[in-house]
Amino acid sequence: MRGLLHLKDSGTMVAVVPRGALLRGSTEAKIRKRLIELNYLDAVINWTTESDVSKAEKSILVFKKNRTDKNVMFINVVDNGDNTGMKKVIDIYKKREKIPQLASVVSPEIIAKNDYNLYYSRYIDMFKAKPLLDLQEQKNKVKALQDKSQQNSQELANLLQDLTKDIDINADQVIEMLLK
Predict the structure, then answer these.
(1) For residue 166, what are the CA distances in angstroms to 24, 72, 154, 163, 169?
(2) What is the pLDDT of residues 9-26, one digit of tens each?
């Protein structure tokens, strides 16, 4: 954090930190709190490459002095190795808007309610909703199944009638016996 002392008022500083620094308590929590209070923290970027998933996780912190916006941008990117990840991060960072599963802009009050924990999953909803079912389509499927079931029942009754026509028992009695 010494870099902040040398940062010009119009400058930007980027620091790579272990993810633990974003959520551990004690001194690190006090540092995070002070950075938020001074309005120096501009963004927290969770950067993971598909090949690094099992390695020690790191995050990128972006600092600016003299910020007018007090909100902090959280970005979560998994780079698949085709070099599109960095462009995606820059685009998201410039827009500073909420994008489901990718980015969120969070007020200092919300960060304070989370004890200044800066881990991205606290602020970016990673839930992927399943698409809503088309009710009319589902009704049609149920109706088709009911029709098929009724057709099968009728075919079974006809088969039983054919089987029992030469003996002294009717199809209804056979069905009754099968259902017992």
Answers:
(1) 84, 85, 20, 7, 9
(2) 888 999 988 888 888 888
Amino acid of residue 174:
V
Among positive and negative, which fits the CA dihedral 17, 37, 123, 106?
negative
Q: Give all strands of the β-sheet with 12-18 in edge-to-edge order.
A: 12-18, 58-64, 41-49, 72-79, 103-106
Q: Which of 23, 33, 24, 49 is nearest to 1 (CA)?
A: 33
pLDDT tens for residues 122-132? 898 776 767 77
The answer to whether 133 touches 98, Cβ cutoff 8 Å, is: no
Contact 27, 35 (CB under 8 A): no
CA atoms within 13 A on the CB side of 75: 27
DSSP assignment letter at 139? H
Quickly tell me which residue has 């909803």 as its tokens.
Answer: 125
